[in-house]
Design brief:
Blueprint (H helix, E strand, L loop, with lengths): L6 H16 L15 H6 L1 H4 L3 E13 L3 E8 L2 E8 H4 L1 H10 L5 E10 L5 E12 L15 H6 L1 H7 L1 H23 L3 E2 L5 E2 L11 E4 L4 E5 L4 H9 L4 E9 L11 E10 L3 H20 L3 E4 L2 E4 L5 E4 H9 L9 H10 L10 H13 L7 E7 L8 E2 L2 E12 L2 E8 L4 H16 L10 H8 L5 E7 H9 L18
Parallel strand pairs: 3-5, 6-10, 14-15
Antiparallel strand pairs: 1-2, 1-4, 2-3, 4-5, 7-9, 8-9, 10-11, 11-19, 12-13, 15-17, 16-17, 17-18, 18-19
This protein binds one RNA strand of 76 nucleotides through helix 1, strand 1, strand 2, strand 3 and helix 6.
RNA sequence: GGGCCGCUAGCUCAAUUGGCAGAGCAGCUGACUCUUAAUCAGCCGGUUCACAGUUCGAGUCUGUGGCGGCUCACCA
């Protein structure tokens, strides 16, 4: 996207650089001692009047009027208007500055604050220094940068031109830090587990494959951290969490990026009901901290995350949404038949669990706008969840949905090594039948379980989706700074 | 991978039925000491995504390819 003929556009700026060199002005000096951010200076205007302050940032507007000039500098906090007067700066300095600066340059300005006739807090500049010369033009000042591809590929331009984009990523940061605070306050400790794994597991997904030369060994980028965190529960860390990237070698969509941020946490001596309570408290506490409210807009709806959230079983939800009670169809074929009778197309390769999952995502998930927990999933879909004591075909698992998206998945962790081995074997069987996204046998994990893992509640939460929700973005690419795109030839 | 849409100046966008490629912003020159999408006068700026084809003539029609967006599939 960076064209060759921009030379023409850059030429005037390169000429100005040459002029700076002639005048022995360093266009890229080392540092600048700033005293205030733009927003802080404006907020504290009353106590700052008459005092010299220094701000620094990018020149984002320029209105020259001969012997005086108004312009704005932008820093992280916002923008501040500068007022340059020839009789204040001196003719020589004024002329030099106005002839060598460009929109986009990074400058430092020292002066005193005043209010203009229209009331805008403005810095009357006594000294203006170039801190970094910009050689390329800024995006269009009024329409900003609209080209989606360019916005993603050159996100820095997006951040310069589109203020609300900057706000999204500031919010993202606050969401994650609020999440950490919530977990820390409850005694969870943050851990880091391998991203390069000899055996991948903990989710149904295709991995990225890589290779370590010295070990002469194939490694996989993790698709989840689940199995490592539970090893730490075996080790007695009792409450652990990790916030990090998972990698899944699958399609890209507005809800899927090949690398995405997941929070997983595990709490010994808790079950999935405890975890559900924690999820609703966590999300509502994050919303309150970051947005200042538990109610917010998403896709034109007002979402209220105040606990308690609506709770129903997966069975009820599907019966309600699709008109099929899958418990009445315990065999794959009878369920498929019932679906066909309703005019639902049945994926020939899908097993019973997959069919139930299809029903969920097609008939239930899109309707779950207000926060909802769906409890109790079929065992086929959940190889790491504990069975219900009264029903061996169902596991203690829930997913949380908000805004029509799945944002969390949790269960009472399976800690019986005998059953876990059976589940792995069942996954193996599905793999032989052609399912590429099943778990692979992890003997090392089984050994850990055989040492005894306390009853544990575990949770995975999609951080990107949570941020989408809290910032009202419809695409995951809007909350990931550099989303995956095809590289340009 | 399928479907739909898009790609024109650095940026944001026009261009009638196939008939001279345009505007605003940015840039350059000049005027202007409270402007804020500053204003005013003038100037510069194009491989219309690429390649082929139809045609007297293609930004426009056709084909192939590239990239992007949306969507479906996929994705517990």
């Amino acid at each position: 996207m960076v064209e060759q003929h921009v030379d023409e556009v850059m030429a005037p700026r390169l000429e100005k650089l040459a002029r700076l060199d002639e005048a022995h002005v360093e266009p890229y000096p080392r540092r600048y001692e700033r005293t205030h951010l733009a927003a802080g200076a404006i907020a504290r205007f009353d106590s700052l009047t008459g005092r010299e302050i220094r701000v620094a940032g990018r020149l984002v507007s320029w209105r020259g009027m001969g012997k005086a000039t108004f312009c704005h500098v932008a820093d992280v906090s916002g923008r501040l208007q500068l007022y340059l007067r020839r009789d204040v700066l001196g003719t020589e300095a004024y002329d030099f500055v106005t002839k060598t600066l460009d929109l986009g340059d990074i400058v430092g300005a020292e002066g005193t604050l005043f209010r203009t006739r229209t009331g805008e807090v403005t810095l009357e500049v006594k000294r203006l220094e170039l801190l970094a010369k910009s050689l390329r033009p800024l995006p269009e000042k009024w329409h900003g940068l609209q080209d989606t591809e360019k916005r993603y590929r050159q996100r820095y331009l997006d951040l310069i031109a589109n203020d609300e984009v900057k706000q999204v990523f500031v919010t993202r940061s606050r969401v994650i830090s609020s999440m950490r605070r919530f977990l820390e306050e409850r005694g969870f400790i943050e851990v880091e587990t391998p991203a390069l794994q000899p055996i991948y597991g903990g989710a149904a997904a295709k991995p990225f494959v890589t290779y370590h030369n010295a070990l002469d060994q194939t490694l996989f980028l993790r698709i989840a951290v689940e199995l490592y965190l539970k090893r730490l529960i075996v080790g007695g860390l009792d409450r652990v969490y990790e916030i990090g990237k998972d990698f899944r070698n699958e399609g890209i969509s507005t809800k899927h990026n090949p690398e995405f941020t997941m929070m997983e946490c595990y709490q010994a001596y808790a079950d999935y009901k405890d975890v559900a309570q924690m999820v609703e408290m966590m999300v509502s506490s994050i919303a309150a901290e970051v947005l200042g409210t538990r109610q917010f807009a998403f896709k034109g709806e007002t979402i209220d995350v105040t606990p308690p959230w609506r709770r129903l079983t997966l069975r009820e939800a599907i019966r309600e949404g699709a008109g099929i009670d899958y418990v009445e169809y315990p065999e794959r074929e009878s369920l498929a038949e019932a679906m066909r009778a309703k005019g639902i197309t049945v994926d020939a390769a899908a097993g019973r669990g997959k069919l139930i999952d299809n029903l969920l995502s097609e008939f239930v998930e899109p309707k779950l706008i207000q926060p909802t927990f769906l409890f109790d999933y079929p065992v086929e879909l959940s190889p790491f969840a504990k069975r219900k004591p009264e029903d061996a075909t169902t596991v203690e698992r829930f997913e949380a949905f908000v805004g029509g998206m799945e944002i969390a998945n949790a269960f009472s962790e399976l800690n019986d090594p005998r059953d876990q081995r059976q589940r792995f074997l069942e996954q193996l069987r599905l793999r032989e039948m052609g399912d590429e996204e099943t778990q692979v046998m992890d003997e090392d994990y089984l050994v850990a379980l055989e040492h005894g893992m306390p009853p544990t509640g575990g949770l995975g939460m999609g951080v990107d989706r949570l941020v989408m929700l809290l910032t009202d973005r419809q695409s995951i690419r809007e909350v990931i700074l550099f989303p995956q795109l095809r590289t340009k030839a």
